[in-house]
Amino acid sequence: MLKEAIGIGETEQEALEDACKQLGVESHEADFEIIERPIKKKFGIFGGSPAKVKAFIKVSPADVAAEYVKNILKAMDFDSISVNVSEIENGAQIDLEGEDVGAVIGRRGETLDAIQYLAGLVANHVDNNYFRITINTGNYREKREKTLQILGRKLAFKAIKTGRNVSLEPMNPYERRIIHTAVQGVNGAVSWSEGESISRHVVIGIDPKNPPRRNYNNGHRRNNKRGGYNGNRRGYSKPAEQKTDAASGSVEREPINEGGSYSLYGKITVPKKTGAEEE
């Protein structure tokens, strides 16, 4: 994508510098085209016209996204936060640094996710090609992912122990998928999503295809209720086909594709309407 500006000055050099100033670059960083050469006034009084120069630079989706993030932070009065961009495969990572980054992250990363989503939309409109934008600060993404993995496993064991379903708070598709993946590592537990739009959340319960083994106490079997589990309830997404390892007896499950095209780090597209919602 080309970004251009037209500068005006008494000389061609001054016109070029004016155009580059509008682009926010130095004169040696831009290509230029002379539109009009200066015409001197006759007798120093009559006629004459200034020089006009068009300068242009090629901007990448990463540059556009970074500039967009800077404008958002400026509008939020976070001028002290620095924006650093690094290229990654099929995209770029934008790292924020400063004393006020905690306010930018927001409650459970909601503000950071919103800024990232909008920056991704802007970046994808540059060349109309998929370009992934990731916004991070102080390894927040990695810490959040680890926290969700621990939470998913903890609640999976709780569901097995109590025999009751456990509902989590609403999360975005990317975080729901982290929970699903963590639960799939716990034999005897299964997870699915319920709710619509921003109310969509993960529910963890007992796996009907691989129920946990029940212990016996004084010859009586412990309560084996499944907390009202109903495989046909609305909003329930059936787990993937399971395969049992004959040697270890463990169950292998394919990861749930939570959210389709709405992944936090995935391609941002407008999905076509289908007969059923894609989990």
Structure characterization notes:
- This protein has 279 residues and is an alpha+beta fold.
- It folds into three domains: 2-58, no CATH class; 61-138, K homology (KH) domain (GMP Synthetase, Chain A, domain 3, 2-Layer Sandwich); 164-262, Ribosomal Protein S8, Chain: A, domain 1.
- The chain is built from six helices and 13 strands.
- The strands form five sheets. The protein has a three-stranded antiparallel sheet. It has a three-stranded mixed sheet with strand order 4-5-6, with helices on one face.
- Helix 2 crosses helix 4 and helix 5 (140-162) packs across helix 6.
- The longest helix is centred in the middle third of the chain and has 23 residues, at 140-162.
- The radius of gyration is 28 Å and the shape is rod-shaped.
- The protein starts with a strand and ends in a 26-residue tail after the last strand.
List the main descriptive attributes of the protein structure presented here:
279 residues; alpha+beta; GMP Synthetase, Chain A, domain 3; Ribosomal Protein S8, Chain: A, domain 1; 3 domains; 3-stranded mixed sheet
Mean pLDDT: 78
Q: Give the fraction of residues assigned to helices.
A: 25-40%
CATH fold-level label of the largest domain: Ribosomal Protein S8, Chain: A, domain 1
Series of secondary-structure elements, N-terminal to C-terminal: EHEEHEEHHEHEHEEEEEE
- Largest β-sheet summary: 3 strands, antiparallel
Structure annotation, total helices: 6
DSSP, total strands: 13
Beginning-to-end CA distance, first to last residue: 35 Å
Q: How many structural domains are formed by the residues?
A: 3
Radius of gyration: 28 Å
- Derived structural class: alpha+beta
- Overall geometry comes to rod-shaped
| DSSP strand content | 15-25%
Name of the CATH first level of the largest domain: Alpha Beta
Regions with little confidence, pLDDT below 50 for 5+ residues:
216-222, 224-252, 259-279
Major sheet: arrangement of strands: 1-3-2
